[in-house]
Amino acid sequence: MPDKASSKIVVAWEPEDTDPGNPLNWPAWKKWANVLVISTISFLVPLVSTMLAPAVQLVMQDFHTSSATFATFCISIFVLGFASGPLLLAPLSELYGRVIVYHVTNVFFFCFTIMCAVSKSEGMLLAARFLSGFAGVATITIGSGTIADMMPREERGRAVAIWSVGTILGPMVGPIIGGCVAERHGWRWMFWILSVAIGLVTIVAFLVLRETNQSVLLERKASKLRRATGNPNYRSQLEPAPNITPLEHFKRAIVRPTKMLLLWPMVTILCSYVALLYSTLYLLFATYSFVFKDVYHFTTFSAGLVFFAGGVGTLIGIPYVGILSDRTLKQRMQAGKTITPEDRLPLIITLPGALAFPIGLFVYGWSVEYNCHWIVPQIGTAITGFGSILVFIAIQTYLMDAFEEYAASAVGANAVLRGIVAALVPLGGLDLYHRLGWGWGNSVLAFLALAFAPVPMLMGAYGHKIRGMERFQVEL
Question: Are 81 and 136 a contacting pair, CB within 8 Å?
Answer without folding.
Answer: yes
